[in-house]
Design a protein that fits this description.
Elements (H helix, E strand, L loop, with lengths): L3 E5 L13 E18 L10 E21 L1 H14 L5 E7 L10 E8 L16 H10 L1 E2 L2 E2 H15 L4 H18 L12
Antiparallel strand pairs: 1-3, 2-3, 4-5, 6-7
Helix pairs in contact: 2-4, 3-4
């Protein structure tokens, strides 16, 4: 009986939602994390989609996250759960996972990864790139059954911070989003202070 591995690079990092028997922090090569996928079922609505992360192919890039090993006896339930949760992600790929201690040789081979493609025929919710101001405004305003879109972004930042894998690019995005929230609300303090990022 063979287990499977699933790689999480978004909300699966802090909220996998399925049974697993091992967890490895690592990265996949030649992909970067981008806020290009529209969310109409979790962090937005069909009328006002939120933005969640997907992977975009970029040679030389790395994307850090968490891989979970699911035992054979738990696979059916876990995969049924993931197919519902990740239903707006239209493709599954199998990538090798690398770690700090194994940066050149895969620590785990053939890790399953859900991601959203830009193919509008298969993925009607793909939003793609947009100016930073537009993206942060959309994230600030969007809200869905799983909560506000901005909460998703802050939780992702917190999860990556705990892994010690927050990139400068992502910090810049978070700071801009924080400033958007601060500007709209006229805040003077927040638990998501720039000094803590």
């Amino acid at each position: 009986m063979s287990p499977i591995w699933v790689f999480g690079y978004g909300s699966l990092i802090w909220n996998p939602g399925f049974a697993y028997d091992d967890r490895v922090v690592g990265f996949v090569r030649d992909y970067r994390r981008v806020f290009y996928q529209g969310s109409t079922d979790h962090r937005g609505t069909p009328q006002f989609p939120g933005r969640t992360v997907t992977l975009e192919h970029q040679p030389g890039a790395t994307c850090w996250g968490v891989a979970y090993r699911i035992k054979e006896e738990d696979k059916e339930i876990a995969l049924e759960y993931l197919e519902v949760r990740e239903k707006q992600y239209d493709e599954k790929v199998y990538l090798d996972l690398y770690t700090d201690s194994s940066p050149k040789v895969p620590a785990v081979e053939n890790v399953m990864v859900y991601f959203a493609t830009s193919n509008k025929e298969n993925n009607q919710n793909y939003l793609g790139p947009a100016p930073l101001e537009e993206m942060t405004r959309q994230i600030y305003l969007a809200q869905g059954p799983s909560g506000p879109n901005k909460e998703y972004v802050f939780k992702l930042e917190d999860a990556l911070h705990k892994l010690g894998k927050v990139t400068f690019r992502f910090i810049s995005f978070i700071v801009f989003l924080f400033k958007t929230v601060q500007y709209v609300h006229g805040l003077r303090s927040s638990k998501f202070s720039c000094q803590e990022l």
